[in-house]
Design brief:
The chain is an all-alpha fold and about 180 residues long. The protein has eight helices and no strands. Helix 6 (about 105-130) crosses helix 8 (about 170-180). The protein is globular. It starts with a helix and ends with a helix.
Length: about 180
């Protein structure tokens, strides 16, 4: 499934860079493809199989599908507050859920760690180059102060204000590539 997820990530990164969106139809179709492949038991096999082999040879595994759906649901629920606060996009949450469903929790945690490490380094250098580090730290501290003074979480960023943000899908792709190459 790693090869398939690489294709998903590559396309999601391209659309996120070009349009700042990851189409739901794309993510949904890959989610259903992964669910079907997981149920058919072809996930752990990297050799090509014919349609007749898939239909008549492999037993259906509903337990694998339940695990697939559970991983996707758990990551979606975990990342929901970050989306709700405006820190990540809905497409990014769906892409991370798809990553967990395709690769499993252990690989997901490692890939997301590599992605966040790469993204933080990239963001830091971006802010240094654009000379916006002090401003971004000030915005974050002001947001934190508003949350504390209001006694509740408030959205971090309005959807219209995308200035100075880096698309997350290419960062996820880079983190997955780093994971596959070095870990």
């Amino acid at each position: 499934m790693g090869y398939l997820f690489f294709v998903v990530c590559l396309t999601a990164a391209a659309t996120d860079i070009l349009w700042r969106r990851i189409p739901n139809i794309w993510l949904g179709s890959w989610f259903l493809t992964g669910l079907l492949l997981t149920g058919l038991g072809t996930v752990s096999r990297f050799q090509p199989v014919s349609l007749t082999e898939v239909l008549f040879r492999y037993p259906w595994s509903w337990q694998a599908e339940v695990r697939y759906l559970g991983r996707a649901a758990a990551v979606s629920l975990f990342l929901f507050p970050a989306w709700r606060l405006g820190m990540v996009g809905a497409g990014d949450v769906k892409l991370c859920s798809l990553m967990a469903a395709f690769l499993g929790f252990k690989a997901f945690v490692r890939c997301i760690f590599c992605s966040l490490l790469f993204g933080s380094i990239l963001s830091f250098f971006y802010m240094i180059i654009t000379k916006s580090l002090r401003k971004r730290i000030g915005v974050f501290l002001a947001w934190s102060g508003q949350c504390i003074s209001n006694g509740r979480w408030i959205p971090y960023r309005k959807k219209q204000n995308m200035e100075g943000t880096i698309p997350l899908a290419p960062v996820i792709l880079a983190g997955c590539v780093l994971y596959w190459l070095f870990l």
